[in-house]
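Side project, low priority. Logging it here so it doesn't get lost.
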Amino acid sequence: MDKPFTGGCACGAIRYSIAGEPLFSNHCQCRDCQRESGSGHGSYATFARAGVTLTGDAKHWDMVADNGNVKTRGFCIQCGVAVYLTFAAQPDVFTIRAASLDEPTRYQPQAVTFAARGHDWDRLDPSLLKFDGMPPG
């Protein structure tokens, strides 16, 4: 059996364990991710929801994406750290913030999404695939 991906918030109140490999890993440069991360992008790994075990109480914040779909961000009510995202239009996936991993070196980004909204000062690996928005299904 493969080693699960584990992680959580800074204070440990929220924890996850995820069986299986990421379906997709990306740096997102959309304005929502820029604002939420306080940086030029957010870094994420998306998994099949069936493999996720989640413990702790998260506060949820819904926002509407450019395409009209609702994305829900889960963050810790104790330390305030954003840990995960879920998507109303894709209930079978669960996305974690790469920095929330216990072993962040396991994160291997595959692409940059919303690269059209990136800033010159946010230099990401030039060898990654780049998409102006989200890649096609």
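Brief comment: The first helix runs from residue 31 to 37.
Revisit when time allows.
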